[in-house]
Write a structure and sequence with these properties.
The chain has 204 residues and is α/β, with parallel strands linked by helices. 32% of the residues lie in helices and 25% in strands. The protein has six helices and seven strands, in the order ααβαβαββαβαββ. The chain has a seven-stranded mixed sheet with strand order 3-2-1-4-5-7-6, with helices on both faces. α1 runs antiparallel to α2 and α2 packs across α3. It is globular, with a radius of gyration of 16 Å. The chain binds S-adenosyl-L-homocysteine (SAH). S-adenosyl-L-homocysteine binds next to α3 and β2.
Length: 204
């Protein structure tokens, strides 16, 4: 979108519909619009979005992928939960965006992209979901933006190194877990999360 500012991006994303009934087993946490805008704006300033092929893994209701599309990317959103994907489709239509939505497990998706954006399950409910998402992302694209629980930082660093990726940015964020899941009794709970940018290391 021509002339869009980071603030207007965040406002547009804040108006999107979220999960209607979040599924705890799938760890459906909506990324807060300002955190999504921060990530997307970083990629935008690096010139990584406009005209690029972007995949959003575990897209949920689409805040990351649709935001990338607003900034000029060609976007595929992969989401296993049909209900969330339906909301994502409505959000895309509301923004007048043409995107591809694939209802599938991320491990079934194969393709190539310039960039992956994702906020994967943190692996607290579905063990190793975070590792599976990273592994798929690294196979798809040379640049990956992702959120992970800060407590897993050592794993994230070791795993990405083993997979041939360098961490070029690690930004600590306070991640609000919206009160969308029944087992979260508190009104609003924040967890320490790190936003990473990974880049493939080429040895020649
Ligand atoms: N990216 C969205 C949603 C994050 S929550 C946002 O930032 O707001 C994680 C999402 O991953 C949920 O929508 C969940 O349904 C989806 N998910 C979990 N496991 C998955 C899998 N194996 N394959 C595809 N999607 C999955």
């Amino acid at each position: 979108m021509i002339g869009m500012s980071k603030k207007s991006l965040a406002i547009t994303l804040s108006r999107l519909q979220g999960f209607t009934s979040a599924n705890p087993a799938l760890e459906q946490y909506l990324t807060e619009s300002s955190l999504a805008a921060d990530l997307l704006w970083d990629a935008h300033l690096r010139g990584e979005l406009d005209g690029s092929a972007v995949v959003d893994l575990g897209a949920g209701t689409g805040v990351l992928g649709l935001g990338a599309a607003l900034l000029g990317a060609r976007v595929v959103l992969v989401e296993k939960d049909a209900q969330a994907a339906a909301v994502c489709r409505e959000n895309a239509a509301a923004l007048g965006l043409k995107v591809r939505i694939v209802i599938a497990d991320v491990e079934e998706y194969s393709g190539r992209a310039d960039l992956v954006v994702m906020n994967p399950p943190f692996g607290t409910r579905a063990r190793h979901a975070d590792r599976r998402f990273l592994s798929v992302a690294f196979a798809l694209a040379p640049i990956v933006y992702s959120f992970h629980k800060t407590s897993t930082d050592r794993f994230v660093r070791a795993f990405s190194r083993d997979e041939g990726f360098a961490i070029t940015a690690a930004v600590p964020v306070s991640f609000p877990l919206r009160n969308t899941m029944r087992h979260h009794r508190k009104e609003r709970e924040f967890i320490a999360v790190t936003r990473y940018r990974f880049e493939k290391i080429y040895n020649d």
